[in-house]
């Protein structure tokens, strides 16, 4: 069953008097527990698609259905509540609150929802263990490395056990070694927790952690790749690079 | 080790051409660059219109307050002295009785004055109080900061021939007095005549003391020059007639002297004054006409000092706002500045860019401030006129005042922008292009508190240790400033601890998102601290003004209760014969009557000069039956002191005089009397604030003997047990009100009116506190807007995590609430200290004995105002934050 569905999604912007079609009719469905990467050159509509899927923006046409709920009919507050309960976001620049400790940052979505984090302490401890930050739970963001900060962000995205986690270039601001560790962590979340994940990325190495790759070009899905769940990562990477080269020509 | 010259590769150092490029420009290039700087500055000011307006408002308000206070002070002082100078007209000097102005002297002196060299003319004047018989007595006693005013009609007896040499009467109807100097003729001021419905040719009945006389109105004069005296309630009559009416044959009160042209000013006039003084001897004083306004001017001095201090505080708060706004501009434009730096703008150019913006804003703001200041002065002058019971008709705008306030506005703006300008110049091109600028917690935030503690200790020391006179006069200002600055320095350090303590309350009020907002206080610490400080100063002002006002009110109440003792107060615009006391005693329900006579006297100081004091003459025994003296402690048996006073050759002095002159019981004090200089024994020290404490008490017998005065100004009446004061008051009014032209009032009424007057007095200071609060509110708006702009991406993240717009708004409001509560609590602490300091130094400097009462009302008002202001000011930034579009926000850099 599809946890997330996009039907003929269109998004138009007016820019300096010209209409730009950021998305030009995208159909797209995500099964529960899937790990998907969205790739494409700059301006292909990757981020726009991610924003529409996460209910941050309204499509000009078409519909996004998240966990059985059509998003286009919701007002701002309703969309916010859907986001709060069903979507976890991970950003390129981590976006942690500098005044809160690592653990407090992780519990932020609970706090926003008016829940008492203490009642979910075991869950939080488990998440801290998953991202390997048990020892650094009381550190403030400026005392953490970039990789550690991104791990906090991942735990924060997972804390509400959302229907879907959306990650926008999660390795974009990290060195390749740390980037690999982050992608492995996301992979583990998918494998061990059954978390559905969509990652937008430029980086074929990061994309190789996904089971399905959606290539966008000029606002349209130009190609899709699907891999066996336990397939070899090297083979995947080769396939992705080949597809990218083919699409560029 | 290679030498420097060999080590340096030729291309690793800038060529001479490159190095000099930043410095050596032709004048044309310089002009072009300056033009470009101006253009950029204008654009940048216009690009953020709201910020520009907010910052500009800070300058406008600061400058307006300074100018308004200068103008108010100049105008009221001018109005007060103008009455005396215009009334003396062209006279260069005046001769008055040296011991008391009320008593006058013999006409014979006139010849002596006229015979003196360099005197062109000498013109006699006799003054007296009267009332129009047709005019009903005043319903209430006139109160002003000068004490109890006397209404009624002032009669000016003049020499119809000679007087026009000294004064210009503008006759608008009828004619000038005839040359017959014994004629029963009068000229009235037109406004007054119109009020009383009197026309030229009418005959009017005047009551002077217990006598009546009928005079014919021959002319009406305009309300200018001498017509300004007594606020226009003036009648001009021939000198002989005046002497008749007041039974003072051969007496004059004043001789106005006109010098020959060569001696009419500067040093020549000074030596004429000295020569005349020597010629006439010590029984007469030769004075400049304007100095007669001095007593009022002296009374105003304390008031003006207070106003001046508050204007300094206003500009202080304004400087906060400007600093805040400019550091905000710098933070917001870090990228822009970085970009300009990559394009080759030097650090100096960056600094001058910011300073040019500040300068332009400062100039425009200061210009608007001047206009607003004149407007504000209009309101303050009206209030001031009310307390002075003196019309202020002309607004005096001293050029120096305009220049001073403009320059202060501009300089403060530039100084406040200097730090942000310097910070901007330190932005490195790379840093600016990579990340958004952050305001770092610098030295001030980390170590400022040590300076703060030192300043507060210094401020408190100033209160305890009094400096010698020239410095001592400003001790109070310095102490208050030190306390305020000290508190401001402590704020950043205090804020962090404070936030932790109060967070649970904020969480309860605003929810969990409120707690997030509360924690944000710790970020941009300097900016937040400045805003909290501004709020703190506003609250401290509200509180200390309230406390001082309350202390004054309490003081006045005690004074009124004791010295307007008894139940009913009887007075008149003319002096009353003392036998009226016997008649009043016969009125049903009256238990006791005590008569009081106030008189201006001169005290001879040890160094030979003299000072004016008020003398309150009473029959000590009768007085103690109606009310009681309040003796300062440690003087022994009160009854013995009272009987010593009744025994004669003795006086009581006020605690103010005792403190100022280091006098105590048993010492003597020398007064100028009708019989020459005489020493009186100080029989006791009492608490009395009449004429700001410059007051003596004397027995009625001594008054008769040494001053030849036998009438009364006022009667204090105690009613019999079980009698209603209101009924007794009514009875007296019915029996004698009309015939003696009495004003009969109950103490209750007077007390209430005095309280109202105090309330009005404080409203002037309240206006200034309000302005400080407005400036602080602008600071809150600025700071929060800046925070929102800086945290745009963070807010976007929170929104993406599921924070609703409402929650975002609550988070910002909580942050503001935290500032408000912080500013409020600190303001209360500082305000209480400040109030104690001000009251303490007023007590020691002016000899008041005001008690410091913590005003719960002031505390509540101050706190509530701080919180409400913070919330109102946060509405706009909160709205702005809530309406951020999530996608734009998360992409915002």
A few lines on this structure:
The complex is a heterodimer of chains A (249) and B (893). Chain A is α/β, with parallel strands linked by helices. Helix content of chain A is 37%, strand content 27%.
Give your account of this protein's structure.
Helix content of chain A is 37%, strand content 27%. Chain A is of the alpha/beta class and 249 residues long. Chain A has a single domain, classed as P-loop containing nucleotide triphosphate hydrolases (Rossmann fold). The mean pLDDT of chain A is 90. Among the domains of chain B are: 27-85 and 294-438, no CATH class; 93-287, no CATH class; 590-719, no CATH class. The two termini of chain B are 48 Å apart. In chain B, a hairpin with a 2-residue loop joins β4 (142-144) and β5. Chain B has 893 residues and is α+β, with helices and mostly antiparallel strands. Chain B is 58% helix and 17% strand. The relative contact order of chain B is 0.12. Classes of the chains: A alpha/beta (249), B alpha+beta (893). Chain A binds chain B through residues 51, 54, 56-57, 76-77, 80-81, 83-85, 87, 89, 91, 93, 95, 97-100, 108-109, 111-114, 156, and chain B through 511-513, 515-516, 519-520, 522-523, 793-794, 796-807, 886-887, 890.
